[in-house]
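Record type: monomer structure entry
Structure origin: computed from sequence
Chain ID: A
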Amino acid sequence: MLKKLLSYIIPINIYKQKSSISKTLELTWNNGKLVLDSENTNYSYGSLERVLRTGLKSIGFAKIKNMQNILVLGVAGGSVIRTLTDELHFEGAISGVDIDPEIIKIANDYFKLNEIPNLEITIDDASEFVRKTTKSYDLIIIDIFEDLIMPDFVFGKAFIDRLGIILKDKGFILFNTMILNEANKRRNLKYISEFEASLFTARKITKVEQHNELIIIEKLYLV
C-alpha cells in the first residue's frame, strides 16, 4: 500500500525480469496503478489499456457485451481482457493466445487472469493458433508486439485470409498497430487493401495515444 501511495509522486518499480521473447518485463506502480511494461513501451494497464478501450468503444460496448466468442491474440498482462470482463461485464467465452509463458505467469500472479472463469489462455504462436483453430469468433483483438516490433506475419496475406475465415459474419477485427514513420502508414493501408471490399468494411482510428493506429475490420453479412 505504501508503494502504491508513493507512486503518485514517483513511479515505483517492484519487479523486473528478462524474457526470452519480450526481452525485459517490468512491473511498476504508477499513479496508484500497477502497470506492465517492456523496455520501451507499455504492455498492459497503462496507455495500451486506453488504446484498446478506444477501439472497443468505437465498435460499441453494448454490441460487444452481446457477443458469444472473443479471441485475444497477444494477452500480455491482460488489460483488454479485464476491460471486457470488469467494465463491459462480458460473459461469453474469451480465448487468449500468447507465445510468452513468462508474461502469462506475471499476468496470473499479479493480475489474476487465471481467476477469470470465462477465459481460456493458450501458450502458442498466434499464426499457428489461427491456422489450427476450428472455432469462429465475433471479435478478434490483435495486439502482438515484441517491445516496439510487430512481427511480419500479422501483415501477411495468409494470416489475413485465415482471420477472414474464422471471423463470424457481422464480426469485428480490432488491430492495434504503431505508426512511427511513413512506411508504417503505407503498411497499414496495404493491410486494409487485403480485405476484399465486397466482404469487409475497414476504418482507422489514428493517433491514439500519439503513436498508435487502430484498424477496425467488420465482416459483412451475406445473404
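Annotation 1: The domain at 42-219 is CATH 3.40.50.150 (Rossmann fold).
Annotation 2: Residues 47-59 form the longest helix (13 residues).
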